[in-house]
Amino acid sequence: MLMCSSKSTSRREGPRSPNCLLLQGKYVYLQETNTLEFERKPDDGFAAEIRSQNPETSRHTVTNYWRPMNAVSITRAIYKKLNLHRRGIFTITFSNGLTNSLPSVSPELLLCRDLELAVPGTYRADAPVVTISSFSRQLVVITSKQRPRKLTIHGNDGEDYAFLLKGHEDLRQDERVMQLFGLVNTLLENSRKTAEKDLSIQRYSVIPLSPNSGLIGWVPNCDTLHHLIREYRDARQIILNQEHKHMLSFAQNYDNLPLIAKIEVFEYALENTEGNDLSRVLWLKSRSSEVWLERRTNYTRSLAVMSMVGYILGLGDRHPSNLMLHRHSGKILHIDFGDCFEASMNREKFPEKVFTIVFSS
């Protein structure tokens, strides 16, 4: 839109006209001004801002100069319309944070009523089919890296079914992992010794919609370990990353140290921190010692089973935000199975950090 023709430039003003230099040199400036400044400056103020970049021009250059300025005005009008549309889609609510309005995002989906399709993840061969009655008007935006949405589907049985709508991520591997968990649960249930101990792995439905999007069943009454530890430490004014601060106080250039030195720094951090946050959380959230013992036993067993299955999978990217704890049963629930097999073995950099809170609880 703002490109200059080399032939017309050479006929009129030589190799490169001042107008062409202005447009080429200020293209990024125009783009940033369009994006950031159109709400605060009127069109004449915007044009004055552009003219100030090159005030001395000849008559015919000014004529050519205003041709792309007309295009810029059109672009600014488009930006304004897009911004109004964006404001209609995103709304801020103090109770739920950032939400999407389904009528603005997908009005066709909102109009879908009383479908014959089953609610994802609910179909059972020996049970009545629960079909989709309607979709909730609000999509809650989860404040994580990919900004997934929480979608609620109303079933014809009167129940609400919540899902996590994820984009830019292939969930087909997560679906296969859930199938493996189902096989492991079958093997554990067929053995009398393991069946008595309730060693089954907590599963949830995974429905890939495309190679880069899908739905994940929402597991109620679960909190990430990161959330539980943050809540515990904030209430007692304990620094959230105190282990990491101890490591940096011992060796500021930790990332550049050899392996043996990193182990020494890590052991120093272990000796100077208690690491019993999760253990205290389990105790404080239990109404009696019997409930605490039951949750602690379920926690230990579920952690042990998933450690063995995770070893078979070569499961990586395990950190407190990818481990969830069920509030009532105390079982550990793993999420995000994007790093399996070769991905976790051949990686050069590891985003997760080793922590002992899981083991000392």
UniProtKB/TrEMBL annotation:
Which residues are in the PI3K/PI4K catalytic domain? 135-361
Query: Which Gene3D superfamilies would you find in this protein's record?
Result: Phosphatidylinositol 3-/4-kinase, catalytic domain, Phosphatidylinositol 3-kinase Catalytic Subunit, Chain A, domain 4
List UniProt keywords, sorted A-Z.
Answer: Kinase, Transferase
Where does the record locate the signal sequence feature?
Answer: none
Against InterPro entries, the record matches this protein to: DDR_Repair_Kinase, Kinase-like_dom_sf, PI3/4_kinase_cat_dom, PI3/4_kinase_cat_sf, PI3/4_kinase_CS, TOR_cat
For this chain, one GO molecular function annotation is: kinase activity
Write out the coiled-coil annotation as residue ranges.
none
Instruction: Identify one Pfam family in the record.
Output: PI3_PI4_kinase
GO CC entries? cytoplasm
Name the record gives this protein:
PI3K/PI4K catalytic domain-containing protein
List the source organism. Answer: Eruca vesicaria subsp. sativa
